[in-house]
Structure formats: structure tokens, C-alpha cells
């Protein structure tokens, strides 16, 4: 076959039966070392092509990665073929042959000169961080945590089934965890699809002195491409049944045996796998089919593994050399060949149906990882997410605006029991997430309840049926109905979309003509910013006076818990943009009790039963009046204020609820904490936002975040998308908090260009 380019030539590696096995046992080597450079050519191709498709890697953009060998070579060939400059961060252990290859392919190689806290790995990552500052916008493949690493081995699994028909035992070396875990996961799916019922047994091979399977770190170990001083995100212990450890002496001897006995000149990762394969060949029952993955060839090791002088200098003969593995309980420290069963809990996948593009969107993905979950993002356009390249999240492209596409996409990728939960941080996809959760049988709110919260006219109907206080509201579907609606609500009135987000389209109108014009403008909108069809409906509502509050609640063990109340400050009419929040709100016991009573009744009325809920209301002289209910966390940084004030981390708790994990709500003393948003008083293009460092240095200020860059268009805020950043501060009282926020805003100057 003639391939169009080098990228297409990656893979298609041979499967060779080993001589070490008796005739009634099949022991085969998958010669990944027959790729252009080595096994990680597959990973390099996958991550680069995916990054380009997702918009994370721009055409001609630089690639920066930390690698001591095969991943560097894979990136070099794939990057070169696809037109990207490649920067490799490595350490003095890199061999001369690999270094020569990298330079010949045009790579920039950066060699660290000393270990840091966690050995060579941490030293390399520190240098990589500095390079990323030097090359803003560079793509970091993150081989140790990028979900595309294990996904790259789906093709390898297909090749194994096509060549052998079935596999009983899979053996592979573990470094980043991607190759073995990815191949194992895909192979199990392939075998299941082929009708196989017997379980696949997966054996990982590690180095003595590696932390991957509960051993203490020994940074001075000599093996390359196997073992690690850090625990990588792509290592999923649930995919591995058994682990074998070999020390440097045993691994190097096995590698030489592989060359002498089988004629395969390979590296120590392949040699270690070969040692375990020989053991299995002598011990497994007749008819067993065993496959070992041989990742790399031996030319990189001519000055180490294949050099007697190196053995003497490294004093390898002083290490144990066992001919059989010692079986030990998992967690026992070992100094030579040993094996143990791997205790593991399957890592559930938490599926996000789209996400916020700012704020909690990317943060939620990393929080899911912190909970031991594997985040999966379903999206119709990955490029809309600026932080997706560093989110360590598996991205699945599908039409998220199609009711059936998300479930079909998940069924094509995962078994039903692999999905632990479904959620979203985007207001626009709450209904889709609830429907998908119901389809998959995972925790979630009733889809009808979520739909009622999204369609504000339905919210009003349910609150009316429950006899709860709310503004007079009339739904209109044509411009001609506006005058009658205004007669019912009075003037001034609020005209707003029936289903949107972030105060978009909400306007205070002082006349029938203005209300009619704004309603006509909203009714002409057929799709929202996420290309979803919107209902042809507008609400005309009574203007309710009084201070606005946000009430955060969450269900735990079937019971609704009120987490707290936040005071909100919005912009002057005619828009209603949230400009400042303070938590906890300064309320007396009576007002607080009334608010809690109304919110509990409102949540019950709309039918929510799960996870977080955000209710907005105004406190009038007659009591609380419900403005809206949302089946989600609050926006406007309110969950972060609650966390910083000493309350629960609601984002984490919402993810726990979505995954069916217990919700934890610790209670303690709260410190008043608030946020003030930056806005522009004029329309134009931003020249600079000066003084934010001075604001950051003020007492009580915890964070200053700037969300606009010079050259960006700005305007006076008409909705939340016009806010340019924020200041977060804490104080001993709400009064002092307001003074701190005022002082911080006074330090920041918005300058516009004259162009």
C-alpha cells in the first residue's frame, strides 16, 4: 500500500508469534517498535489531529512537550508532516541517537540540567511551564493526562482482533498509562462486540522504584519509557488486573534475552514485557492466547542496555536477578521481580453536555478529575472553549442540539455501566442533560421540571397553581398582544425572552410603544447563541421593587438544603445586569425565614428533585416575590463566593450529585465575601485596563480577574456578557466589604482607543 503521507503510515504493525511458547499456547508480540519511530507515534498523531480539529492547535502553531524518547519522536514526525514547529523538553538521560533524530527533524530540544522535587519529571515540567510563557498559544499535548493518549490505541485493539481473532491475556509496560489502559479498554469492547463472554486479563509491567502501583519513588532508576515518579491522569487502575515489577538488572537482562532468543532488538520496556510473557508461556493453560505490546526498538540503548561497560558503571549486578516473580500483597515494597493483584475501583465517566465558555466551565472538568471521575465533554463545536486544550477531558463531537445524538454518541464509545452521571454548566443544555440522564438511568432531575424552569411562562403557571408570590406576567406571541399585556402589568414593565441566559434581552420599558418595539425585536429571534431554536414567546411582567437576592439550594439524601442567601446589586434601568454580590446577605432572622419558606415551596412547585437549584427573588414590603428558578448553580461567581466565605464548594457538590456520590455540606462560621464586576461606561475598543495590580494589593482583596484584552470591543453593560472582569474581596462585615470593593474598582481605569 502507498500512503499519502507519513501520518497515514503510522500503525498497521505486525503481530509475531514468539518461540518461547509451547505449541499449545499462543504467545505473540505486537511489534509497535515497527512504527516509524515507536508506539507513541500513534499518540502523537491522535493528539495533534484532534487538537487541530478542536481548534486548540492553530495551523502552523508550535507544539511543546516533555519527553525522554518515543513521544518526542512521534511528535517530531507528526508535527513535521503537519507543519508545526516542535519543542521537546528532556533531561540528560536522553540518548545520543534520539537527540540526533530530533534535531535532524528540526525540533528545538531543551535539556534540563538538574532534578527538582519529584525527580527529572518535575524538572522537565517546570521548564515546560517557562516555555509556554515564552510561546503563548502553544499546544501542550500532555501525554500523561490527555485522554487522546489512551484513545489513540483503539486502532491497535482492532488490529489485534483482526490478526488473532481473540485475546485472553494482554501484557504491556506502563509509563504514562495510555497505551495499556487505552488498548485494554478498546480491546474489551472489541471482544464484547464479537460475542466473547470470557473476561480479558490485563497485566501491567512496571519498574522497581516507580510510583505507579503503590511503590516508593526511586528517581535514580535506569529504565526508560517505563515507570514514573508522578501519577499520570491516564493511568486507570481499573483496567489492570495484575502488575509485575522488574528492577533495572532484570529488565536489562530480559531485553538482551529478547534479542538473542527471538531476534528482536528492542528497548527495556519491550524486554520487561518479554520476561513476563515467558513466565506466562510456561504457566498458562493450553489454548490460551497471550499478547504482549513491544513499544520501542533498541537503537536508543546501544550505550546502556547493550553496553557491558555501562552495566559495570551502573553496578547492575548488585541488584537481585530473580527467575520467577515473588507474589506479594499490593503495597509491599519490592526490590526485584514481583507480582501483585491490582485492587481497583472502576473510574466512572461524568458526561458534560456542553459547558460554560468561561467561569466554572473548564474548572468543572478539572474538579471531576479531582473526584476520581473521568470527564467527557459532548460538544458540537470544541473550538468555542478556550481552555479545552488543558482540561484533561475526553471530547466527543456530536450534534448536542439534536435530541438523540448525545445518547447515540455515548453508546458508540462506552458501555452503559461506564457512565456515572450526566451534567452541564451551560444554561442552554440543562434540558438536554436531564433527558440524557433519564435515558441512561443515572441521577438527574425530571426532564419536565427542568423544562419548566427553562420556559419561564411554565414556571409562572406552576407558581400560580401553588399560590406563590410572583410578578404579574403575561406571555405574548405577537406584537399585537403587547398592549393588552401592558394593561395587565402596568408601566413601567419588564419585557424579556421566555428562555435565555445571563439577563440577555431583559429590558425595562416605560411605554407601550417601547414594550411593543422590544417584544417585536425578541420575537424576531429564532435561534440563540448556541444555534438552538427558541420559543416564539416573550414575557411582559410587572416591575417588582425591593432588594434582589439569590438563594442557593441543593438536594442531599433526598432533602432540600438551603445553603445560603446572596445579596445582589443590579445595574440601573433599563437593563438588569448583575454588578455586585455579597454573601451571606445581611438579613434578619424573620426575613431569612420567609425567604427560605418561599424558596422551598417554589422548588417543590416546579418539581425539582436533584442537585443544585438557584432561585432569584426580590424582598418587597409584602414579603419575598419569586423572579425565577433555575435547575443549576448560580452564575456571577456566587458558588465561588460561598466557597471563599467558608461555605461548601457547590461546584464540587453538584458534580458529586450528578455522579451519584454523597453530597457533603459542612457548616461553620462565614466570612462576608463579595464580587464586583468591571464594566465600561462607553462603547469602543479597549486600549487598556490599568490599575488592576494596585487593586489586587489592597487589604481584603482575594482576586482580580481581567476578561478583556486590548483591542476587544466593549460597551456599557446590557447583559452579563458585557462585563469585563471582576474583583473578589472578603471583610469582617458587609459594610466593610462594600468599601473594599469600591476601593478596588476605583483603582482600575478603563481606557478606550481613539481609533
Structure, described:
With 755 residues, the protein is an alpha/beta fold. Helix content is 33%, strand content 22%. It contains 23 helices and 30 strands. An 8-stranded mixed β-sheet has the order 1-2-9-6-7-8-11-10, sandwiched between helices. Strands 24-23-20-21-22-25-29-27 form an 8-stranded antiparallel β-sheet, with helices on both faces. Strands 14-13-12-15 form a 4-stranded parallel β-sheet, sandwiched between helices. A hairpin with a 2-residue loop joins β20 (547-556) and β21 (559-570). It is elongated, with a radius of gyration of 30 Å. The mean pLDDT is 93.
Summarize this entry quickly.
The chain has 23 helices and 30 strands.
Amino acid at each position: 500500500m502507498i500512503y499519502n503521507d507519513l501520518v497515514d503510515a503510522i500503525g498497521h504493525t505486525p503481530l509475531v508469534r514468539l518461540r518461547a511458547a509451547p505449541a499449545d499456547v499462543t504467545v505473540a508480540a505486537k511489534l509497535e517498535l515497527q512504527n516509524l519511530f515507536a508506539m507513541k507515534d500513534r499518540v502523537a498523531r491522535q493528539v495533534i489531529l484532534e487538537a487541530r480539529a478542536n481548534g486548540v492547535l492553530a495551523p502552523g502553531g508550535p507544539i511543546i512537550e516533555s519527553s525522554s524518547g518515543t513521544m518526542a519522536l512521534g511528535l517530531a514526525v507528526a508535527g513535521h508532516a503537519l507543519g508545526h514547529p516542535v519543542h521537546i523538553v528532556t533531561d540528560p538521560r536522553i540518548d545520543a541517537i534520539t537527540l540526533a533524530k530530533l534535531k535532524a527533524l528540526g525540533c528545538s530540544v531543551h535539556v534540563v540540567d538538574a532534578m527538582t522535587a519529584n525527580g527529572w519529571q518535575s524538572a522537565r515540567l517546570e521548564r515546560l511551564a517557562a516555555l509556554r510563557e515564552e510561546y503563548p498559544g502553544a499546544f501542550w499535548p500532555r501525554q500523561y493526562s490527555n485522554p487522546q493518549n489512551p484513545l489513540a490505541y483503539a486502532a491497535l485493539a482492532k488490529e489485534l482482533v483482526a490478526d488473532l481473532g481473540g485475546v485472553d491475556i494482554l501484557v504491556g509496560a506502563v509509563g504514562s498509562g495510555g497505551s495499556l489502559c487505552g488498548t485494554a479498554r478498546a480491546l474489551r469492547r472489541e471482544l464484547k462486540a464479537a460475542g466473547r463472554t470470557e473476561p480479558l486479563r490485563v497485566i501491567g509491567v512496571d519498574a522497581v522504584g516507580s510510583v505507579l502501583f503503590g511503590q516508593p519513588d526511586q528517581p535514580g532508576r535506569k529504565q526508560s519509557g517505563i515507570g514514573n515518579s508522578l501519577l499520570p491522569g491516564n493511568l486507570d487502575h481499573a483496567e489492570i488486573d495484575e502488575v509485575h515489577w522488574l528492577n533495572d538488572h532484570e529488565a536489562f537482562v530480559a531485553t538482551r534475552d529478547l534479542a538473542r532468543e527471538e531476534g528482536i532488538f528492542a528497548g527495556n520496556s519491550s524486554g520487561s514485557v518479554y520476561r513476563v510473557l515467558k513466565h506466562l508461556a510456561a504457566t498458562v493453560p493450553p489454548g490460551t492466547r497471550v499478547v504482549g505490546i513491544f513499544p520501542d526498538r533498541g537503537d536508543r540503548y546501544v550505550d546502556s542496555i547493550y553496553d557491558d561497560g555501562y552495566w559495570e558503571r551502573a553496578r547492575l549486578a548488585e541488584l537481585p536477578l530473580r527467575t520467577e516473580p515473588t507474589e506479594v500483597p499490593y503495597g509491599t515494597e519490592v526490590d526485584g521481580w514481583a507480582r501483585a493483584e491490582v485492587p481497583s475501583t472502576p473510574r466512572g465517566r461524568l458526561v458534560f453536555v456542553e459547558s460554560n465558555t468561561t467561569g466554572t466551565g473548564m474548572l468543572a472538568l478539572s474538579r471531576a478529575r479531582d473526584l476520581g471521575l473521568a470527564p467527557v465533554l459532548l460538544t458540537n463545536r470544541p473550538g468555542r472553549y478556550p481552555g479545552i486544550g488543558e482540561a484533561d477531558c475526553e471530547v466527543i463531537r456530536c450534534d448536542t442540539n439534536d435530541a438523540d445524538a448525545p445518547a447515540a454518541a455515548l453508546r458508540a464509545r462506552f458501555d452503559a455501566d461506564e457512565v456515572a452521571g450526566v451534567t452541564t454548566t451551560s444554561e442552554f443544555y440543562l434540558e438536554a442533560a436531564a433527558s440524557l440522564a433519564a435515558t441512561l438511568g443515572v441521577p438527574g432531575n425530571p426532564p419536565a421540571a427542568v423544562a419548566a424552569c427553562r420556559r419561564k411562562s411554565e414556571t409562572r403557571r406552576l407558581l400560580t397553581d401553588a399560590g406563590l408570590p410572583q410578578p404579574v406576567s403575561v406571555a405574548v406571541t405577537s406584537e399585537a398582544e403587547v398592549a393588552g399585556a401592558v394593561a395587565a402589568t402596568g408601566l413601567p414593565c419588564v419585557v424579556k425572552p421566555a428562555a435565555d441566559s445571563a439577563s440577555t434581552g431583559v429590558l425595562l420599558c416605560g411605554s407601550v410603544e417601547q414594550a411593543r418595539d422590544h417584544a417585536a425585536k425578541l420575537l424576531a429571534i429564532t435561534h440563540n447563541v448556541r444555534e438552538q431554536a427558541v420559543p416564539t414567546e416573550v414575557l411582559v411582567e410587572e416591575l417588582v421593587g425591593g432588594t434582589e437576592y439569590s438563594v442557593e439550594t441543593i438536594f442531599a439524601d433526598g432533602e432540600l438544603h438551603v445553603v445560603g442567601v446572596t445579596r445582589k446589586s443590579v445595574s440601573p434601568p433599563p437593563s438588569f445586569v448583575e454588578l455586585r454580590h455579597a454573601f451571606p446577605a445581611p438579613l434578619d432572622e424573620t426575613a431569612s425565614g420567609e425567604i427560605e419558606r418561599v424558596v422551598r415551596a417554589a422548588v417543590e412547585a416546579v418539581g425539582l428533585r436533584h442537585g443544585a437549584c438557584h432561585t432569584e427573588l426580590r424582598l418587597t414590603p409584602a414579603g419575598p416575590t419569586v423572579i425565577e428558578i433555575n435547575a443549576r448553580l448560580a452564575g456571577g461567581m456566587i458558588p465561588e463566593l460561598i466557597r471563599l466565605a467558608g461555605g461548601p464548594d457547590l461546584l464540587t457538590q453538584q458534580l458529586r450529585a450528578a455522579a451519584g456520590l454523597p453530597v457533603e455540606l459542612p457548616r461553620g462560621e462565614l466570612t462576608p465575601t463579595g464580587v464586583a464586576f468591571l464594566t465600561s461606561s462607553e462603547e469602543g475598543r479597549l486600549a487598556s485596563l490599568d490599575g488592576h495590580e494596585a487593586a489586587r494589593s489592597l487589604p481584603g482583596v482575594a482576586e482580580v480577574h481581567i476578561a478583556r484584552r486590548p483591542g476587544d470591543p466593549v460597551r456599557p453593560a446590557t447583559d452579563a456578557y458585557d462585563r469585563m472582569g471582576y474583583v473578589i474581596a472578603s471583610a469582617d462585615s458587609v459594610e466593610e466589604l462594600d468599601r473594599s470593593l469600591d476601593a478596588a474598582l476605583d483603582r482600575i481605569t478603563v481606557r478606550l482607543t481613539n481609533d
